[in-house]
């Protein structure tokens, strides 16, 4: 398949030497989700995106210094609960608006996937997220999800007119990519099905390698003139790809278009290969150490500001204590 949509790149990703955040994706999504909570109607410009990647990677390295965390997570790949409890940012997850579900393989071996019966599917989850997204315009509340899939975390930001996927690991976009990225799915997005697809020896098809066309500028990007020029230069390169896509359109089938293409992207680009690999392992009788349901499970954690209990100033506490003492003394004297 081929994806035509707007994309915005950072200068680095989490594995860059300037970030040094090899396994920092959990800390990174917490830092980025917090940024979106503080900047509800904005998208980061390149320098801000780079800074968020460095900040999140630094927070991860700080967590790695904690002996308790190192014992619990020898691979230094912390779970979301641990990062939130560490309070690297004032962020919390709302369980009532979060979802845990499973991808359903197209070919299901009888008895092997019984745990899927009655469980929430990815399609069910997306229906709920889409419905919530349609209400964004009325309440103005940001819909920011931390998504967990295939041992990786990324951000899904939902707006009334668009979805955004924010990922700090470039390899998730295409092999060899070393830049974090933001994909925008809106009315201009199109996913094509390529004709004459041939399979390679590792069972990956060319349809799974996204060709991303379009370069979008962030909403507050005009504030940085130098970066604006750079983005226009990048955009001119990608526009050539868009023209090429137009020339090939007669040989391609449009699978879907519009903002809901985000759902198809997650299913056909992010999830397709791991699910096929799982089915191939089962067919060969090879079972990995990871439980079967974990390899199909996807989680959407709805985030919001961590609501802290109000604190009483020390001076006010001392004054109240003094008044109480005077009252008690008067009562005794009487």
Distance between the termini: 88 Å
Structure class: alpha+beta
Give unreliable regions as ranges: 197-208, 221-247, 327-334
Mean pLDDT: 79
Largest sheet: 11 strands, mixed
Helix content: 40-55%
Radius of gyration, in Å, reads 24 Å
The geometry reads as globular
Q: Strand fraction band? A: 15-25%
Count of alpha and pi helical runs = 11
Could you spell the SSE succession in H and E letters?
A: EHHHHEEHHEEEEEEHEHHHEH
How many strand elements? Answer: 11
How many separate structural domains?
A: 1
Biased composition (Low complexity): 217-228
Region (Disordered): 199-236
List strands and helices in order, with pairings.
Elements: E1 2-9, H1 25-38, H2 46-64, H3 67-72, H4 80-85, E2 91-93, E3 99-102, H5 122-134, H6 136-139, E4 143-149, E5 152-158, E6 163-167, E7 181-185, E8 190-193, E9 213-215, H7 225-248, E10 253-257, H8 261-270, H9 272-284, H10 292-296, E11 297-305, H11 314-333
Parallel strand pairs: 1-9
Antiparallel strand pairs: 1-7, 1-8, 2-11, 3-11, 4-5, 4-11, 5-6, 6-7, 8-10
